[in-house]
Amino acid sequence: MANTNKGRKFYIAVDTDNTTPLPQPTDLTQTDYEALTWLEVKNVGSIGESGTQTNIVSYDELSTDVTQKQKGISNAGDPPVEVARNTSDPGQKAMRAAAATKYLYAFKTEDADAPDESTTNSVYYNRGLVTGPTRPNGRNEDFNLEVFTLGLIQREIVVDPEPIAP
Q: Per CATH, which fold does 9-159 belong to?
């Protein structure tokens, strides 16, 4: 069954105080991500594209009529995360604090796609920089928005729905 983004949640990993973003200087495994403490960022309106995009490198040889191709370097993405500005939300505060540094942080996105109550939702893990926020401003009836950009540097780990252990 196909699903929409409705109900999707976005999180940043935090220290045991549950408010301070926790830098992650090295690549993480699924087990590493699952052991982290997560803080939901509220009022998220959209999350941009993530996943791996790999460059295609080409070379034209004089002796052939077909271009030679190989895979080049991959990019994990630079998704923008748009939020309706909420100065009291601990998740948004953590994003602002992370954006003020040059460190790498862990992120989790969770879909609301479990087929039933005995199954988990899909989860996506990644790690990278936080920049921003920028403010797109707008017209008199627009929400006050902030946009953070994530500079992801690790291949995304996707965990599909699984049965919940008894």
A: Pnp Oxidase; Chain A (2.30.110)
Going 43 to 119 to 2 to 151, the CA torsion angle's sign is positive
Distance in angstroms (rounded) separating the CA atoms of residues 135 and 92:
14
DSSP symbols for 22-49: -B--S---HHHHHTSEEEEEPSEEEE--
SS3 content of the chain, % helix, strand, coil (to 5): 10, 40, 50
Domain residue extents for the chain: 9-159
> Residues 3-45: pLDDT tens digits?
888 999 999 999 988 899 999 999 999 999 999 999 999 999 9
Tokens representing residue 120 in the block: 């988990």
Which of 89, 160, 94, 95 has its CA nearest to residue 124?
160
- Write out pLDDT tens, residues 38-83: 999 999 999 999 989 999 999 998 998 999 999 999 999 999 999 9
Paired tokens of 99? 């954006």
